[in-house]
What we know:
Layout: H1 30-39, H2 44-48, H3 64-76, H4 82-91, H5 93-99, H6 106-115, H7 117-133, E1 141-150, E2 158-159, H8 161-184, H9 191-227, H10 231-236, E3 241-242, E4 249-252, E5 258-269, E6 272-279, H11 288-299, E7 305-307, H12 315-322, E8 330-332, H13 344-356, H14 359-367, H15 371-379, H16 381-395, H17 403-429
Parallel strand pairs: 1-7, 7-8
Antiparallel strand pairs: 1-5, 2-3, 4-5, 5-6
Helix pairs in contact: 1-3, 3-6, 3-17, 4-5, 4-6, 7-17, 8-9, 12-14, 16-17
Amino acid sequence: MSKARYLEVDRSQLRWDLVDLESQLAMDHRARIVWAFVEELDLRAFHDRIGSREDSAGRPPPDPKILLSLWLYATLEGLGSARALDRACQTDTAYRWLCGGVAMNYHSLSDFRSGNGELLDELLTENVCALMAAGLVSLDEVVQDGTKVRAAAGRGSFVGEDGLLGYEKKARARVHRLREELETDPGASDRRGRAARERAAEEVGERARQARETLGRLRQEKAAAAKSHKKAEAEKSERQVSTTDPEARLMTFADGSKAAAFNVQVAADGWFVVGVAATDRRNDTGLAAPMVEQLAERYERTPSRLVVDSKIATRAEIVALDDHPKGRVEVYAPVPEERENVKPESQRKRAWQRRKEPAAVKAWRARMETEEGDAAMQRRKHIETLIAITKNRGMRRMLVRGIEKVRSCVLFQALANNLMQAHRLRAVNQPA
Length: 432
């Protein structure tokens, strides 16, 4: 019986592959869509932050256009780690195409994402204004919802004041020890590594200091809640903070589990995100008015209708938004179900309270009994889908620490969503 014949691996052979990056990426690839979007943006504010100038020495940093494109594409791909993105820039064709031959490193990628929150916020405003000019966004009706996103911290990182003092003491001792090693080490081979460990130890100490300050602020909030007779709120106040991410809070998720997390708020007009916020609030109550204020500041106008669930808008907010100085906002939110089988005196008290309610609250109750009220609640499902999409793109757990860095990640999610939704609508409406 003859032996089988086949081609075997031979990695010693020499080959010359003359292929440019441009030809390696399909013309309809999503990376090209991202690049086309970024090319239309005004990035002068990003360029103004670059310290390297034409008449200065040293290696210049990458073009902000490249860094922005990389993070937008990485967001769409669900890639949230700067180190993972660094590796992808070396191996993945799409990321290499976006780099265009410019070498990347982890530090540049990480610093860009975390250090440009203000500019990213401005980009979102400019993006939505462009969508309004194109007739894709009107701000007539905005839907708001919140979601809890796990923080880059475990439950075991939460300690009280005594634990914080011990933690901070250990961090200082570690820094001192590493500095002594650097001063006394006769060899220079490991000096760089020890310096890096020293910086890491200093960061640990800084987080401990921040945690101690946060614990003090939480105690003040608890005292203020108790003074204003908000007993339930005072009892729920934190007695511990995380040494890993002092700005994260222990929050309860839908499945009953507790974890360090942030409360992310998203406001959308149809399928487009028009406003975002990252908070340390355990629940959504009272976050309707701040979102409207954000929209008013961004776009110099308020939405005509704000659609939320029953947990977000308070009655005080319904009254305040009904008389907003930049335009009346009608709140659409489910009316909480009232208890049945209450005592006659309780029924009389409830009826008396209803008669004393402000006109805006009475109007809210009335419109929620109409077909338009039911239709608004159906349209609210759009925001649930959008939030689910962001979850699938890496928003289930943060890989950065601190509210501001979390907010930067959320802004990238908003921009990535809007550019793809606009592309989808243009493709649908394009004549055959």
